[in-house]
Amino acid sequence: MNLAAEADQESPKELEELALSAGADPVEFLTGSLSHPNPKFFIGQGKLEELRELVHMHDAKLVIFNHALSPAQERNIEREIQCRVLDRTGLILDIFAQRARTHEGKLQVELAQLDHMSTRLVRGWTHLERQKGGIGLRGPGETQLETDRRLLRARMKSIHKRLEKVRKQRDQGRRSRMRAEVPTLSLVGYTNAGKSTLFNALTTSEVYAADQLFATLDPTLRRIEVEDIGQAILADTVGFIRHLPHKLVEAFRATLQETIEATLLLHVIDSHDDDRHDHVAEVENVLREIGADEVPVLEVYNKIDLIEGRKPRIDRDEEGNPIRVWLSAVSGEGHDLLFQAVNELLADDVFHDNVSLQPHEGQFRARLYESGAVLSEQVDEKGSIILEVRMQKKDMLQLLSRLGMSRERCFPAEVNPW
């Protein structure tokens, strides 16, 4: 069931993909235009009757609405059409429940499901309204409904505590990476844009990747080598989607923290998708919601192998900085350009200069060679050794400190990075 104002039509194609990802077998789409939802049924009486006839004709077992329904609306529609009703939030929650693989992911999904369920506990049977009685149980007691709510609240509190423990562990890992000044590159993007495929190609990992929505739920981190930058962390994260339920954003906040505190976001976009501009806007909305809109972004237009004549390239802004890379995660075209762009964006922290060494500074020379930072060497007319050195500023400063040498040895006061 796909219903919206003409200016805000939802994509029937996306609803079909969501349904297929959940394991459903769609048989009919019912669309319409409605400026103001009906408080009781969400849809009008005419559309409700049409829906009832379609359910009877196909002997349907489930009706999915591509919108968020209130608990009362769900129950009212089910009562009228005699068929189970699921809204968009419930559908996405079901997909997440199927996809979660790690203990943390399962906890996050369960928390979101319990939060969603808490508003849908109703007195569906007469025995739920009877108070407990009998020997030792007389008195005010509580209804079965109240018991269910109490147990549900206790379970949610328990999950919150366990997720808080996970969050602290993640924070500890991030702090250690920050102390070591290891940059983090976080892959973000609309679901099914090809983030996990690109992640696997860049890291030679085997993270689960499939042509379906929300193939990845659990964050995966791997170390990669970036020329001039050295080691970096690449993080694969959950895909975003239009109207991503707020409950899921809250439940996955510990996971999305990798995005918030990243050094650079790689926004993966399906260049072959006709709705890519809308998807970009939705991803930007979610980034704003989680507080990651201030993190620098490099757009990665993926799947150019599906576009005839499209070649890998780097698009730049007026100042010559990379803003967009066109590549194919599957074929490998443009991967070198992605590393080049990342290198340029993070290279502000790279030391690249000539270093003049005296004969007694052999240990400094040896250490520079050990780190692989020497690009060339020559001797001037005075007998001084001139090394062309390229390495991260932090590594140079650490080396100077270990050798007991002054920072001004390589960083004159006027350009001292500290």
Automatic annotation (TrEMBL):
Residues bound to GTP: 189-196, 214-218, 236-239, 302-305
Domain of life (superkingdom): Bacteria
Cofactor: Mg(2+)
GO cellular component: cytoplasm
Keywords: Cytoplasm, GTP-binding, Magnesium, Metal-binding, Nucleotide-binding
Residues involved in Mg(2+) binding: S196, T216
Localisation: Cytoplasm
Metal-binding keyword on record: yes
InterPro entries: G_HFLX_dom, GTP-bd, GTP-bd_M, GTPase_HflX, GTPase_HflX_N, GTPase_HflX_N_sf, HflX_C, P-loop_NTPase
Metal-binding found in the keyword field: yes
Pfam families with a match to the protein in the record: GTP-bdg_M (PF16360), GTP-bdg_N (PF13167), HflX_C (PF19275), MMR_HSR1 (PF01926)
Gene Ontology MF terms in the entry: GTP binding; GTPase activity; metal ion binding; ribosome binding
Record domain Hflx-type G: where: 183-350
Subunit field text: Monomer. Associates with the 50S ribosomal subunit.
Family: Belongs to the TRAFAC class OBG-HflX-like GTPase superfamily. HflX GTPase family.
Function description: GTPase that associates with the 50S ribosomal subunit and may have a role during protein synthesis or ribosome biogenesis.
Protein known as: GTPase HflX
